[in-house]
Amino acid sequence: MTSPDGAPAPLPAPTPADRPRVRLGTGILVVSPESRLLIVQQERGGVVDWGPLGGGLEHGEGIEECAVREAHEESGLRVKLVRLLSVDEFWHRGQLEHVGFVFLAEPDPWPQNVSLPDLDGDTRFLDHRWIAKDEVQHFAVKDSWEFWARHWPLDVRETLFRSLDVES
Question: Three-state SS for 85?
Answer without folding.
Answer: strand
